[in-house]
Amino acid sequence: MSLNSSWTPDESSETLLAEEGWLQGTVVSAVAYGIGVALFFMCFHLLFRQMNRTNYKKLLPFLIYITTTFILSTLFMAALADFTQLAFIQYRNYPGGPSAFENVSIPMDNITDVCGVLTMILSDGLVVWRCMVIYRGCMVPMWIIMFFPCLMFAASIAMAIMWLLQVTASVPYFSSTDINYSIPYFTLSLALNIIITIVIVLRLLTYRHRISKVLGSSYGTQYTSIAAMIVESAAIYSAFSVALLTLIGLNNVISETFLVSLTQVQIIAMLLIVFRVAQGKGWSQDTMSKVMTSRPSAQTTRMGDFGYNMQDGSKTFTGSTGTGVHTTRKSKDRDSAELSV
């Protein structure tokens, strides 16, 4: 059966494209939410299993953080699904179509706005904290390093509050003003994540160079590998933010797809950071000293037909005849030795 163009709603091509972007963004957001649910339970399981009387003060904040984020993401996804259903099914004939209905302020839409803002604040706070941890011990004073990110973080919170007051239309001043707070709010938050991603990657690259220079490229890979840099710096969310800002700058209606799914992608990036911390692979304040003081448990060098192995002060020489000579030096008594042939 061929499709008839008369079945198309009486709307402009740009409006239809915006509606398609919104609907596709909802689908992408649902997929990202599923990934976030899996990550949440993985993080919760690791943190809860490791918790005891000695470390519960350290791990409990992570449990509270991921649980709060999970609740917010669930409320956001449920409200988004319901609001999308209202726009595309129940009130499909609203003047201007679903694209115009999106600007209607109803409780279900307000829930998505509030949950999205709270999630963004929590996520921005986490990346600011990670930046502080990774730069701890730097020669430059910490307040100089963190002054600008913290200032941007505070400004983004202020813009978020004003944007919420504007979109909920609960305050006459914000609802009647011509100022659009959405642009400075999203720009500040996205720019903050992009900047922190860059400075964290630069710091980890510096650590990687120092570790490789002293101990070789095989050391500290769990902290300075490409995958570690992507996760620690929340590069997934930053790349998503760059794409969104580019599309907004080009006035492309496809930006709606990125905007709708932005919250869930941000949650994935944050849960990946918590998951690395729960695994013990996240960068901490003593990671650099720990890696730099580590040494291989065994080093083997081949010299002709002989194998040389050193482990805890022991030496083994094996010739081509199969004869083995094993020598052990005790750390407490350097003069004692055991020789077996």
Task: Please characterize this protein's 3D structure.
Residues 315-341 are annotated as: Disordered. Residues 315-324 have a biased composition (Low complexity). The chain crosses the membrane at residues 22-47, 59-81, 111-131, 143-165, 185-205, 226-251, 257-278. Keywords: Membrane, Transmembrane, Transmembrane helix. Residues 330-341 have a biased composition (Basic and acidic residues). The chain has 341 residues and is α+β, with helices and mostly antiparallel strands. It folds into two domains: 13-292, Rhopdopsin 7-helix transmembrane proteins (Up-down Bundle), CATH 1.20.1070; 299-340, no CATH class. It is built from twelve helices and five strands. The chain has a five-stranded antiparallel sheet, with no helix packed on it. A hairpin with a 5-residue loop joins strand 3 and strand 4. Helix 1 packs parallel to helix 11, helix 4 runs parallel beside helix 7 and helix 5 runs antiparallel to helix 7. The radius of gyration is 28 Å and the shape is elongated.
Topology summary:
Elements lengths: L12 H38 L5 H35 L7 H4 L5 H28 L7 H27 L3 H5 L5 H34 L5 H4 L1 H7 L2 H15 L5 H25 L7 H6 L6 E5 L2 E6 L2 E5 L5 E6 L7 E4 L1
Helix pairs in contact: 1-2, 1-11, 2-4, 2-11, 4-5, 4-7, 4-11, 5-7, 7-10, 10-11
Keywords: Membrane, Transmembrane, Transmembrane helix
Q: Determine and state the CATH class of the largest domain.
A: Mainly Alpha
Number of strands: 5
Distance between the termini: 88 Å
Q: Note the quaternary state here.
A: single chain
Q: How big is the Rg?
A: 28 Å
Order of helix and strand elements from N to C terminus: HHHHHHHHHHHHEEEEE
Report the uncertain regions. Answer: 296-341
Biggest β-sheet: strands ordered side by side in the sheet: 1-2-3-4-5
Strand content: 5-15%
Specify the overall morphology.
elongated
Which CATH architecture of the largest domain is right? Up-down Bundle
Q: Work out the helicity level.
A: 55-70%
Mean pLDDT: 76
* CATH fold-level label of the largest domain: Rhopdopsin 7-helix transmembrane proteins
Structural class: alpha+beta
Biased composition (Low complexity): 315-324
Biased composition (Basic and acidic residues): 330-341
Keywords: Membrane, Transmembrane, Transmembrane helix
Region (Disordered): 315-341
